Amino acid sequence: MTSRSRSPRLRPLLLTATLTTTLALALAATGCGTEPVPDTRAAGPSGSADPAPDRAELEARASAAQLVAEHVWVTEAAGYALARQSVGVLGDDGFGSVYTEPEGGQIKLSVERLPHADADCTDGPASGSEQEPLVTCERDGEQWYRATESGHAYAREQGDLVVTLSGTRQEVDRATLRSAALAAHRADDHELDQVLPPVGETAGRQPVERGDLPPVGDGAPNNDVGASG
Q1: Could you tell me the residue ranges of all domains in the chain?
Q2: What pLDDT, in 10s, does the model give residues 38-94?
Q3: Fewer Cβ within 10 Å of end Cβ, the chain: N or C?
Q4: Are 213 and 228 in contact (CB under 8 A)?
Q5: What pLDDT is recorded for position 115?
Q6: What fold does the segment set 73-185 form as a domain?
Q7: How many CA atoms lie within 13 A of 226 on its CB side?
Q8: In its keyword annotation, does this UniProt entry include Signal (predicted)?
Q9: Distances (CA, A) of 199 to 52, 70, 88, 89, 193
């Protein structure tokens, strides 16, 4: 009975001694008990745990490029990479960029203030309607998918903005376009640092325009004789 009554009293002492010894060994191994532990909580969609760039500097770079930092979105698709020279403003405060792959395929990303009809199919074709009639216009998860014979796009409303991923059906299949649409998100500070033009290289930058694209419509190439390539 005596040994049983002592056991509970010994456990806290043994636990304290064990923790003290473990802590001492850990401090001896590191040589210092005050080294800071890297904080990875700031990692955003980019997954980077590096210190975030200065926000004021990012805002200044965005302003110099006539962009609103909160309107800058990024995406990813297998085999595609952002064409940095394509980054630019759309309309008054929108954002546009182009992702390309080695074979010449392009996925356009646009963030704009557009009428509700430009995001879904409730009122028929989008305003300023396509040169080609729609062959598909349907809900796909939280987004809308629209397609003509030559071009297609995924679009979704984000507050008062419409985020659209588009391409030609010949260059980009629906699965790839859908993947890019699902991956699209507002750029975090690390991604802004990669997307925004460097200081001193912002004047007059606009999204790349292909000479064979019509001024209106869904962006399908104009293959008429005489069209520039």
Answers
A1: 73-185
A2: 333 333 455 566 777 799 999 999 999 999 999 999 999 999 999 999 999 999 999
A3: N
A4: no
A5: 77
A6: Protein Transport Mog1p; Chain A (3.40.1000)
A7: 0
A8: yes
A9: 17, 18, 14, 16, 11
C-alpha 115/C-alpha 121 separation (Å) is: 12
Q: CA–CA separation, 168 vs 96, rounded Å? A: 17
H-helix segments, the chain:
2-30, 55-64, 174-183, 189-195
- Who's near 87: CB < 8 A, 6+ residues apart? 65, 95, 96, 97, 195, 196, 197, 205, 207
Task: Check the CA dihedral 210-215-220-226 and report its sign.
Answer: negative
Structure tokens at 192: 């802004």
DSSP for 96-141, written as a single string: EEEEE-TTS-EEEEEEE---GGGTSSTTSSPSS--SSPPSEEEEET
Q: Which of 85, 53, 47 is nearest to 69 (CA)?
A: 53
Question: 153-194: per-residue pLDDT in tens?
Answer: 999 999 999 999 999 999 999 999 999 999 999 999 999 999
Structure token digits, residue 111: 């963030």
d(CA 125, CA 129): 6
CA-wise closest residue to 141 among 158, 156, 152, 153:
156
Mean pLDDT within 202-211: 44
Amino acid identity at 111? V
Poorest-confidence range of 3-12, 158-167, 201-210?
3-12
* Non-local CB neighbours of 43 within 8 Å, separated by 6+ positions: 49
Say how far apart CA 227 and CA 229 lie, in whole Å: 7
